[in-house]
């Protein structure tokens, strides 16, 4: 399965706000998560071992945390029913994932393959 989320990627870690009730995600991250819904494939939730390859194209050449982007996209894939969960029994590997720069077309390209296909 391959699909693209054609909006600038965000991390959860760098988008937190501290409130009197605890830590919450920023309004910008919550909007990103909501906007991603439009681009999620309609499928039965995946519940077997996969490789999740996510290439995050950001709009500027700045320091970036791949793990933060991976955490965010895994949570979004679970939230919208693409994955049953993001534990190691399902997201077995994230081989090929990286952060690249594309100032003109920031996006996230996702490829999900059966762990036994490669």
Q: What's the β-strand tally?
A: 7
Rg calculated over all Cα atoms: 14 Å
CATH-level-4 superfamily name = Holliday junction resolvase RusA
What is the domain tally? 1
DSSP summary: helix tally: 2
Q: Spans of 5+ residues with little confidence (pLDDT < 50)?
A: none
> Roughly what is the average pLDDT, rounded to an integer?
91
Distance between the termini: 14 Å
Q: Tell me, what is the CATH class?
A: Alpha Beta
Q: What would the principal axes of the Cα set say about the shape? A: globular
What does this structure look like?
The protein is α/β, with parallel strands linked by helices and 118 residues long. It has a single domain, classed as 60s Ribosomal Protein L30, Chain: A (2-Layer Sandwich). The strands form two sheets. Strands 1, 4, 5, 6 and 7 form a five-stranded mixed beta sheet that branches. Strand 2 and strand 3 form a beta hairpin. It is globular, with a radius of gyration of 14 Å.
List keywords for this structure.
118 residues; alpha/beta; 60s Ribosomal Protein L30, Chain: A; five-stranded mixed sheet; two-stranded antiparallel ribbon; 2 helices; 7 strands
Secondary-structure blueprint of this entry?
Elements (H helix, E strand, L loop, with lengths): L1 E4 L10 E4 L2 E4 L1 H10 L13 E9 L7 H14 L11 E3 L4 E4 L5 E8 L4
Parallel strand pairs: 4-5, 4-6
Antiparallel strand pairs: 1-7, 2-3, 4-7
